[in-house]
Amino acid sequence: MNPMNYVVVSSIGAVIMGSLALFVRMKAAKKPTNAKKIILPPFFMATGSLMYVVPEFRLTPMEIGEAIIVGMLFSILLIKTSNFEIRDNNIYLKRSKAFIYILVGLLILRLVLKAILSTTIDIGQLSGMFFLLAFSMIVPWRVAMYHSYMKLYRELHIRK
């Protein structure tokens, strides 16, 4: 298969996953949340790191550093737009219009970067970099969400 076909197929996959993330986020705001719902996604995603067993996906130290730094910078946007509120003695994730635009913007940026970088970086390594970038974005975001959630959780249970 032509390497450009991999870029196109994986980009379509990214759009589908981004749309799924938006849908899940919208549904999540309608139901109370809990610590497990916040903590588990990074653990489930971590299984993807098995890709690095295959030599084509392995990264150089420089690529690892770049992916982690960019992911952590992107996580700031997600952290700033993820807030909780207490309603009906439960903790809910607040809906944020900015979150939708940020997630779509990050998706578009990812697609553009992938198209540009795929001309100079092997598609396997590029896939490994984007996975690490996403993981480095999700972990700090979820840790921040957990701390915010626990702050409200303690507040809610002290009031009772």
Q: Give me the strand/helix succession.
A: HHHEEHH
- The tally of domains stands at 1
The SS-based structural class is mainly alpha
- Number of helical segments with 4 or more residues: 5
Estimate the mean pLDDT confidence: 87
Q: How big a fraction of the residues is strand? A: 5-15%
Largest sheet: 2 strands, antiparallel
Instruction: Give the total of beta strands.
Output: 2
What would you call the shape? elongated
State the end-to-end distance: 61 Å
Radius of gyration: 18 Å
Q: Describe it for me?
A:
There is one protein chain. The protein has 160 residues and is mainly α. It has one domain (3-159). Helices cover 72% and strands 5% of the residues. The protein has helices spanning 3-28, 35-46, 61-80, 97-117, 123-159, and strands at residues 84-87, 90-93. It has a two-stranded antiparallel sheet. A hairpin with a 2-residue loop joins strand 1 (84-87) and strand 2 (90-93). It is elongated, with a radius of gyration of 18 Å.
